[in-house]
Write a structure and sequence with these properties.
Blueprint lengths: L1 H33 L21 H11 L3 E5 L5 H12 L1 H7 L3 E5 L17 E5 L25 H18 L1
Parallel strand pairs: 1-2
Antiparallel strand pairs: 1-3
Pfam families: Thioredoxin_7
GO molecular function, one term: dystroglycan binding
Organism: Chloropsis cyanopogon
């Protein structure tokens, strides 16, 4: 009889620990939604290992408090130009490395902040904002009709503009 109750206790323990583990699993996923552990979907393919902010407001706050410049990429999922730029951006090792020094945000919608569309609401466009929350209108691409647009062939210009956004930071702040 002793042996039987021992087996029963063991089974009971197993059942309880499984139930607890399941509960713990549930709790973790609830925490993840409450306190965002930043799902990879925020990258939207622009760099899955990079940390992307969720909203413009959050990005501004983080830039100001970390003293890192903010890089904002406006794009659309169904725009071939956006897709093409995203591909070269995500595959460019140096850009991905340098991007770690920025607060990052990619947006598939427009914000109400007119400063983010200095010359129109086209995509893709990339703007830099310094930690004093000033849009860097001086850091532009090569097209005079769309100052903040970059084509895949402009990827090295985008890279040097990222360096410029970081360099001017050191001298000005």
């Amino acid at each position: 009889a002793m042996e039987k109750s021992y087996v029963f206790m063991l089974l009971l323990l197993i059942v309880i620990s499984c139930a607890l583990a399941k509960d713990a699993g549930k709790k973790d996923s609830k925490d993840a939604t409450a306190k965002p552990k930043l799902p990879q979907t925020l990258s939207r393919g622009w760099g899955d290992q990079l940390i992307w902010t969720q909203t413009y407001e959050e990005a501004l706050f983080r830039s100001k408090h970390s003293q890192k410049p903010l890089m904002i990429i406006h794009h659309l999922e169904d725009c071939p130009h956006s897709q093409a730029l995203k591909k070269v951006f995500a595959e460019h090792k140096d850009i991905q490395k340098l991007a770690e020094k920025f607060i990052l945000l990619n947006l598939v919608y427009e914000t109400t902040d007119k400063n983010l569309a200095p010359d129109g609401q086209y995509v893709p466009r990339v703007l830099f904002i310094d930690p004093s929350l000033t849009v860097r209108a001086d850091i532009t691409g090569r097209y005079s009709n769309r100052l903040y647009a970059y084509e895949p062939s402009d990827i090295s210009l985008l890279y040097s503009n990222m360096q410029k956004a970081l360099k001017l930071l050191k001298t000005e702040l």
